[in-house]
Design goal:
Blueprint (H helix, E strand, L loop, with lengths): L1 H11 L5 E4 L4 H10 L2 E4 L7 H6 L3 E3 L9 H9 L2 E3 L1 H7 L13 E6 L4 H14 L4 E5 L5 H5 L7 E5 L2 H8 L11 E4 L7 H4 L2 H9 L8 E5 L3 H9 L7 E5 L8 E5 L2 E4 L11 E5 H6 L5 H16 L4 H10 L8 E6 L2 E5 L6 H10 L4 E4 L9 H6 L6 E4 L4 H11 L5 E3 L5 H16 L3 E5 L12 H17 L14
Parallel strand pairs: 1-2, 3-4, 5-7, 5-8, 6-7, 8-9, 9-10, 10-11, 15-19, 16-17, 16-19, 17-18
Antiparallel strand pairs: 11-12, 12-13, 14-15
Length: 484
């Protein structure tokens, strides 16, 4: 989707466009010549001759291409400008303007975890506050599609991955973004293979604050995000706005005796605060998990920076619902609560889930993306009732439990057929719980070793739970094997 939006935009502007890809869906392969773009299909492990012959002035890369990729290295060595689709969107942002003749404001959101939920929350709060807002970027809607939307928007809420931010970090001065507000929700090791090191990953995330004009929102419970703000080159007058689950200081958002409050966007912030909602009200709509409350605080800070009133934030939160596979209770049956947090694709996210459901039977494992899971097991894994380990990297997960949480029973599910993995997982987990407790899918790993996506992994888990329920009861599932 991103690639086609780039080609379509450039062709419409009259550029000479060549698209290079290892493969293409039939629809895109048919449409590219129609819009006037060339298409070259084939291996990209080496720099294609067609690219060299084309002699591009600019290469706009899909964020899937790592800095170490031969084509990206060739562009850097050849002095060819390298953009991502986000930079292109910024450069053409005045294609559709507001009534006052100005383009939409941009709000940028990144973090190791919680990006999509916070992006959705922020857009919902802005819309409730009377602004035309669109969530876009890494959330699934290309920024270029949002920029070119004929109706136009007041605010674009742009979710950015570390990959997209790395490309923004390559921008030349004329292509740099000047966002209205920005947030990095948290930082933990992730995508280390893509970036090459934890420092490179951190540096990419820090780009989100560059040139922020009004509000740099950061997580007071995560020093890394505070340091990013302190080190960022921002527009003079931009404010640092902190959030966490504690009592807020002036210029912060936080919690006071069960009240979610704003002490940043009011005149007398030294002595008073504005109530946005209550933790009890969030609990009634399934939004009271600690890490979700943090997302709500961050989104509220962004919305308040754009003038959204507290009443609008309260009302929007009463109707907001989390997406599937994000700490989603999929069933309660025979005394067992089954929770799908398949979106917990790294240790930081899984830790948040485990803290929300202490004592759960933990389903963990998959493609670890170069991240060591030992600290997660040592920190919160020991609180699990038992662990059911899946994925191709099971050995390292099992070893982490043996070393750091030896008292936790560990059960291993062979890779086997993808369609059978979750059935076996549910069979084992139901036998462990045996009538009372929680089973939590929070893999702390990517899904591509056994599933097509984290959503596919979550769907298969839910289907296996439904099959187990249809069979009658936990007793019908049999007795689990002995722990490793």
């Amino acid at each position: 989707m991103t690639g086609f939006s780039v080609a379509d935009t450039l062709a419409e502007l009259g550029a000479d466009v060549l698209v290079l890809s290892e493969s293409a869906e039939e629809e895109y392969e048919r449409l590219l010549p129609v819009i006037g773009a060339g298409l070259e299909l084939g291996p990209l492990a080496e720099v294609p001759a067609a690219l060299v012959d084309f002699a591009p002035e600019v290469i706009i890369a899909s964020p899937g291409f790592a800095p170490s990729h031969p084509v990206i290295r060739w562009a850097q060595e050849s002095g060819v400008a390298i953009w991502g689709d986000v930079e292109l969107a910024w450069r053409v942002r005045d294609k559709v303007v507001r009534a006052d003749g100005t383009p939409a404001e941009w709000v940028l959101i990144t973090g190791t975890n919680g990006k999509t939920t916070t992006t959705q929350l922020t857009a919902s709060l802005l819309v409730q506050g009377g602004l035309r807002a669109a969530p876009c970027g890494n959330i699934g809607v290309p920024v270029l599609d949002a920029v070119r939307g004929p109706a136009g928007f007041d605010v674009l809420v742009v979710e950015l991955s570390s990959h997209q931010l790395w490309y923004l970090g390559q921008s030349r001065p004329e292509g740099e973004l000047f966002p209205y507000a920005a947030v990095c929700l948290n930082l933990a090791d992730d995508h280390l293979v893509w970036h090459g090191s934890a420092q490179a990953y951190r540096d990419a995330k820090a780009v989100v604050y560059r040139n922020t004009r009004v509000a740099c929102v950061y997580n007071k419970a995560d020093d890394a995000t505070r340091l990013m703000v302190e080190e960022a080159e921002v527009v003079e007058g931009a404010r640092a706005i902190g959030f966490d689950l504690g009592i807020p200081g002036p210029s912060d958002l936080g919690i006071v005796e069960g009240l979610v409050v704003d002490r940043a966007f009011l005149d007398d912030r030294a002595r008073s605060a504005l109530e946005l909602t209550t933790v009890a009200a969030l609990d009634e709509v399934g939004l009271a998990a600690p890490h979700i409350v943090q997302n709500i605080l961050a989104a509220s800070a962004l919305a308040r920076s754009l003038g959204v009133e507290p009443e609008a934030i309260h009302d929007a939160l009463q109707s907001f619902r989390l997406d599937a596979h994000r700490i989603q209770v999929i069933a309660r049956h025979a005394g067992i609560t089954w929770v799908d947090d398949s979106k917990a694709t790294n240790p930081h996210a899984a830790a948040s889930s485990l803290r929300a459901y202490p004592g759960a039977v933990w389903i963990v494992g998959g493609d670890l993306k170069g991240v060591d899971i030992a600290d997660l097991v040592a920190d919160v894994g020991a609180t699990a009732r038992a662990a059911v380990v899946i994925g191709v990297e099971r050995a390292s997960v099992v070893a982490a439990f043996r070393r750091h949480a030896p008292s936790v029973p560990v059960f291993e599910v062979d890779a086997g057929e993808t369609g059978q993995v979750m059935n076996r997982v549910v069979e084992i987990a139901s036998g462990i719980v045996d009538g009372e407790g929680t089973v939590l899918l929070a893999p702390a790993a990517a899904s591509f070793d056994q599933f097509s996506s984290y959503a596919d992994r979550g769907h298969r888990f839910a289907e296996a739970v439904r099959d187990w329920i249809d069979r009658g009861s936990a007793d019908d599932a049999g007795v689990p094997p002995s722990a490793l």
